[in-house]
Amino acid sequence: MQTIKSIATLLAEGKISSVELCQDYLARIAAHNPNLNAFVTVDAERTLAEARAADARRAAGQANLLTGVPIAHKDIFCAEGWLTTCGSKMLANFVSPYDAHVISQFKAAGMPTLGKTNMDEFAMGSSTETSYYGPTKNPWDVARVPGGSSGGSAAAVAARIAPAATGTDTGGSIRQPAALCGITGLKPTYGVVSRYGMIAFASSLDQGGPMATTAEDCALLLNVMAGFDARDSTSLERNQEDYARDLNKPLTGLRIGLPKEFFGAGLTGDTATAVQAAIEQFSKLGATTVEVSLPNSGLSVAAYYVIAPAEASSNLSRFDGVRYGYRTPDYADLTDMYEKSRAEGFGAEVKRRIMIGTYVLSHGYYDAYYLQAQKLRRLIANDFAQAYQQCDVILGPTAPTTAFKLGEKADDPVEMYLSDIYTIAVNLAGLPGMSLPCGFDRQGLPIGLQLIGDYFAEVRMLNVAHQYQLVTDWHQRTPGGF
Amino acid sequence: MQWETVIGLEVHTQLTTQSKIFSGASTAFGAEPNTQACQVDIALPGVLPVLNKGAVERAIRFGLAIGARLNRINVFDRKNYFYPDLPKGYQISQFTLPIVEGGALTIQVGDEEKTVRITRAHLEEDAGKSLHEDFHGLTGIDLNRAGTPLLEIVSEPDMRSAKEAVAYAKALHTLVTWIGTCDGNLQEGSFRCDANVSVRRPGGPLGTRREIKNLNSFRFLEQAIDYEIRWQIGEIEDGRAIQQATVLFDPDSGETRMMRTKEDAHDYRYFPDPDLLPVKLEEDWIERVRASLPELPQARQTRYRTEFGLSAYDAATLTSSRTLSDYFETVTAALPKADAKLAANWVMGELSAALNRAEIDIATSPIGANRLARLLGRLQDGTLSGKLAKQVFEAMWTEGGEPDAIIEAQGLKQMSDSGEVERIIDTVLAANQKSVEEFRAGKDKAFNALVGQVMKATKGKANPAQVNDLLRAKLAG
Asked: Exposure of B342 by Cβ count < 10 A (0-12 exposed, 13-18 middle, 19+ buried)?
């Protein structure tokens, strides 16, 4: 298995060049992407130019740990000179003139961009089926969805056509696809990764993070991504830390909180069994478990589907056909131009959320919906604070089911929204969370285990995940044919 | 029938920061279209706003200057609406928790002093400009102005006439330029007024208001309000009810015309901007700003009346701008003998008249305050008579130069040698025996004629008081 850690070693030892690596991955993309549709944009010339620069940097003795290691970026990150579509027809022609903070961090580290990965349109979805560029397929069963919205990144890493990728998580968009594709993904504490240049869906919830095959890789990638950025007012001014520093700490004395709400009637079958087995594994590693309660977590989906659409309805107002992006070819006047450009440029799910958001912010409804949802948000955060009095990390399932069939939930938005029932509360509270593989169901589909840390407990979470991966091999399994 | 007018003003003051309120782009006026709009201003996907602390500092400054309450935590909201010159599809403004609440401004209307209460002042960004000409049926968008910092100052409906509204607008203009938060440039749109106008029976409930938008001169403000008052009274007296509406003033016709009614008013769907944290005002920051505030116009007016003995009118005039007031103070301080009244008379008299004629601002006056004080010093020490001083002033204005040099060159020095004056008086008395006799016969007018003759003979250089004394002594002798 090629982790970025192992690739970095090969590069450092001179056993392979970045150009060779990128050529290898580009060939794999060419072979498998037509089947998976994980990438929406590949630009071999650009990638290889970056690879050559990385090799030159290494030759000049100026390489960092990850210089030359290629990475795929979710198409929500603006990257200079790259089409940046956000999965939408609205931005089908948008070539970004600037780099997102995250992209410039990876560039500074000397990591070539392998391409831009598919996603639900404007990150709104849990299956990557709302993309204007067609759905991404799950490498474990191409009749199934990879999860979403970072489904392209998850599928690419799972199929090993990219060693690592970036994702963003507003309600579970890193963790749920990581679970459904059998990879490891981390959503940091809100404010740890700059949102500058990350196309906004719901600003108070959006957070970028790494997706890779192992927790250790996630730690190394987070070292690159995280850090204060003055251009994002919600970016937190903290000392740079090494997220890999405690990976090898033993778990003796670790207190794992098990929220009883996560282990109730909704959790059944193979997922329940796999999560239970993981808990036993942690006991063997020296951890103790304690039952905790998150009494308001049941309200998180409802609160989320008020707050996220409200912010989205405003964030997406800039896509008006005036300055860039899609403009209808034929219009009578200004209002007609707005209406047609937006009606034609946005897909059904995006329009649904803009309408919900517009409604809940309307005069006379604001207090009943938006303010109420913000109050729930505080209650949910308080629940977690209570729980962390008794435990160090919280553990549970990432998603209620394994990967579902393409089209299975596409016509039932509420059923689709419930895919994120275990992940959404984490975004509402602004906490860090991650998903790692913990088994397979009887159909051979991966099951994800979710860890939720207290604020800034990424190091602890990564330590817990890494220790688990040292004694399990779920994360090392690859889908057949890739 | 009696009608009472009720007016409240909303004034958009552009703040004097170098860069925009949420981006680093320049706020300088007059650049080529779209050359001062960065990726944040044009609202590219993914960009985020960062608050300019200079704008907050200026809002604090204004709040302190009007004795307002500063909200230690204030919040930026999004005001959502679509317009081509509004790049994000929302304006970042403050709705629920503005930075400044309360406070008041004292205005002078004729001889009367009146207090106008301020409701609130909030920070917001300006929109861009839509250009409807020169594009052959298309609309051009210039986003240079997008993101320019504004402090919108909202008054209570405390004004009762167009005159009061203008007095308030002028007092506000004086204050914001005085404390340096706004350059006050009306032509460039740095100071724009919206007037909410309604009429009612005296003491009755408030009438329905109409809002006149975007008045950028004091004259238009007065004309627009006066027209609007007459129009509203006419409507009501003709039995028609006033509809709440937004109107525009057309300076060419002198009339207001309807822009939109309440029915097509937007639902702006305000909510706190999640991209910006609530603004926290630390006490020590507020105190630093307070310490940096200059003496305010109101305080100076009081001091001019009590300390200098100036009239309320003079005190108000001299504090109508900080440059004028500072000039006056410099002159006063530089006089050899303390005489603020003399300084006031000259600054408001000769100097103001000359500045008005030449249409220049006191800041660029060809005669500096210290030079004017040196001229007045010659008046105080008797070197010059009032008339001669004016002559010297004229020469200083047109040709420049120091007063003493001009006095010397033109031989304008007042005669102070009493022997020489006496000799001239003797000559005059000898040549005007008829007047002398008339005076002695009791005709006082004859005395004035003699003084006139003496002054004429000295080419005005004699000190009139001295001539008076000497002449009286001679005639008595």
From this structure: middle
Torsion sign, CA atoms A71, A76, A77, A83: positive
**H helix count then E strand count, chain B:** 16, 17
CB-based contact B45 A94, cutoff 8 Å: yes
Domain ranges of chain B: 8-205+262-288, 295-410, 418-476
Q: What are the residue boundaries of the structural domains of chain A, listed by start? A: 4-250, 298-375
The mean pLDDT values, 10 residues at a time, for chain B of 477 residues are 93 98 95 96 98 98 98 98 96 98 93 94 97 84 97 98 97 97 95 97 93 95 97 96 94 91 83 98 98 96 94 92 96 95 96 94 94 94 87 93 89 75 86 85 84 83 81 80
Q: How does DSSP classify residue B294?
A: P
Task: Give the count of beta carbons closer than 10 Å to the beta carbon of residue B4.
Answer: 15
Active-site option among A149, A313, A341, A435: A149
What architecture is domain B418-476? Orthogonal Bundle (1.10)
Residues 6+ apart with CB under 8 A from A246: A459, A460, A462, A463
Q: Within an 8 Å CB–CB cutoff, is residue B48 touching chain A?
A: yes
Q: What is the pLDDT of residues A213-226, one digit of tens each?
A: 999 999 999 999 99
- Cβ count near A408 (within 10 Å): 17
Residue A149 bears catalytic tag = yes
Give the model confidence (pLDDT) of A393-450 as tens digits. 999 999 999 999 999 988 888 888 888 889 999 999 999 999 999 999 999 999 999 9
Cα A307 from chain centroid (whole Å):
19
Instruction: Report yes or no: A156 and A199 within 8 Å, Cβ to Cβ.
Output: no
B149 to chain A, any CB pair closer than 8 A? The answer is no
Cis peptide before B385 (omega within 30 of 0): no
How many whole angstroms separate alpha carbon B25 and alpha carbon B42? 11
- What radius of gyration do chain B's Cα atoms show? 30
Phi/psi for A451 (5° steps) reads -115, 135
Amino acid present at B435: S
- Residue B196's nearest CA partner among B23, B10, B370 is B10
Burial B16-36 (b: 16+ CB within 10 A, else e): bbebbbbbebbbebeeeebeb
How far is B192 from chain A, CA to nearest CA, in Å? 27
Out of 3.90.1300.10, 3.40.50.300, 3.30.390.30, 3.30.460.20, select the CATH number for domain A4-250.
3.90.1300.10
- In this prediction the pTM is 0.92
User: Is the Cβ–Cβ distance between A326 and A90 less than 8 Å?
Assistant: yes
Residue with structure tokens 């006047």? A333
CB B461 within 8 A of CB B388: yes
Where residue B6 falls (left for φ over 0; alpha for ψ -120 to 50; beta otherwise) is beta
* Contact check, Cβ <8 Å, B44/A97: yes
B451 shares contact with chain A (CB less than 8 Å): no
- Which among B161, B150, B122, B129 is positioned nearest to B31, based on CA atoms? B129
Question: Which residue intervals of A182-299 are DSSP H helices?
Answer: 215-225, 269-284
